[in-house]
Design goal:
single chain, mainly alpha, globular
Length: 297
Amino acid sequence: MQGLEELLSVIVATPWLAAVLVGFLGLCVGSFLNVVIYRLPLMMESEWQNDCSLLLEDKLQPEYRLTETTAVKLTLSKPASRCPCCGHQIHWYENIPLVSWLALRGKCSGCKTAISIRYPLVELLTMLASLVVFYTFGPTTQMLCALGLTWALAALTGIDFDTQLLPDRITLPLAAAGLLVNSQSIFVSPVQAIWGYAIGFLVLWVVYIVFKIITGKEGMGYGDFKLLAALGAWLGTSQLPLIILLSSFVGMIIGIILLKVRQQNQPFAFGPYIAIAGWISLLCGPQLVAGYLGMYH
């Protein structure tokens, strides 16, 4: 225990060492986020198929019933990662964040098929985001909590871009974590966190209901409500207007661009822009709000 305390004191007293450790941790977490972004939707889909098969088991012909031998067990750790083209199992030295992709020149060592640049890009962006959090909060409890929020938002952004899903198994624990963190007033008071959670959910829920009444269509999913509620639990009610304004502005710009390059009926994921706006608010929300209000004094 004494050795751990000495190590922590050295890290705190040596900013460059702390930055290196945070950057390395960000790379490793980014590699794990690639797995989460790819596999979690598949795990959810597999569970939905299993549930449907169980519900319809009596109505299905025997050859179509799901059994333990036919059910695919997919987790974040199993089965081991393989090349989707040739089935080559990826060894540990081929899975070093960023370094392995560069060493392999972005190609599978087995079949030489190109590996998407998205994987090292997620790792690099996670590292950079982690360093920004470190330089914003310093080696503090706030920094540790902010890193956790940053990584969760990165995972949700990637999943929503791919599938238009914001999984409850991330958004709900994220909201609970925000309430728990702020029970110690890490970012805002407990009262602000509770009200932020409630109002964050209700704001987009009301927009959803009004839009559905007017158009007869669903303009957004429940995941968006839960994500904004989670951000409200972390950052309080005072940051919700900024998050909504920023996410709407960024979403509008990118949405216009996407409409030019894809079919108009293709679903539009709003969750990533809520996540980006929430992260900006985490870093400099109070300063942005104060600067905006100062313009009118």
